[in-house]
Write a structure and sequence with these properties.
About 15% of the residues are buried. The protein is about 0% helix and about 40% strand. The chain has no helices and eight strands. The protein has one domain: 10 Kd Chaperonin, Protein Cpn10, Chain O (Roll). It has a six-stranded antiparallel beta sheet, with no helix packed on it. It has a two-stranded antiparallel sheet with strand order 3-4. With about 100 residues, the protein is an all-beta fold.
Length: about 100
C-alpha cells in the first residue's frame, strides 16, 4: 500500500531512538520517548493560496526533519508506523 499526501502534508518515518546514553546507561523501552526527527518519505503538491496559486513545498523526499513531540497523526503503512504531518509542523531540516 502507498500513501500520497494531499495539499501540504508530509509522510515521515521516525528515526530510531538510541538505547544508550553517552555515559553507557541502557534506557529501557518503557522510559524511551518517541523520537522527534525522521526521514521524509512522501510530500503533497503544496498548499493553494487564496488567489488559487500553488505554494510549493519546502521539503522533499529524503530530507531529515525535526518536528514537534505531538505533531501529526500516526498511521500504519504495511505494518510499520508512519507520521502524517502538515509542513507547518516541521520545525526544520537537518543538514549534515
Amino acid at each position: 500500500m502507498k500513501i500520497r499526501p494531499l495539499q501540504d502534508r508530509v509522510l515521515v518515518k521516525r528515526l530510531e531512538e538510541t538505547t544508550k546514553t553517552a555515559g553507557g546507561i541502557i534506557i529501557p523501552d518503557t522510559a524511551k520517548e518517541k523520537p522527534s526527527e525522521g526521514i521524509v518519505e512522501a510530500v503533497g503538491p503544496g498548499l493553494l493560496s487564496p488567489e488559487g496559486k500553488l505554494i510549493p513545498m519546502n521539503v522533499k523526499v529524503g530530507d531529515k526533519v525535526l518536528f514537534g513531540k505531538w505533531s501529526g497523526s500516526e498511521v500504519k503503512l504495511n505494518g510499520e508506523e508512519r507520521l502524517l504531518i502538515k509542513e507547518a509542523e516541521i520545525l526544520g531540516v537537518v543538514e549534515d
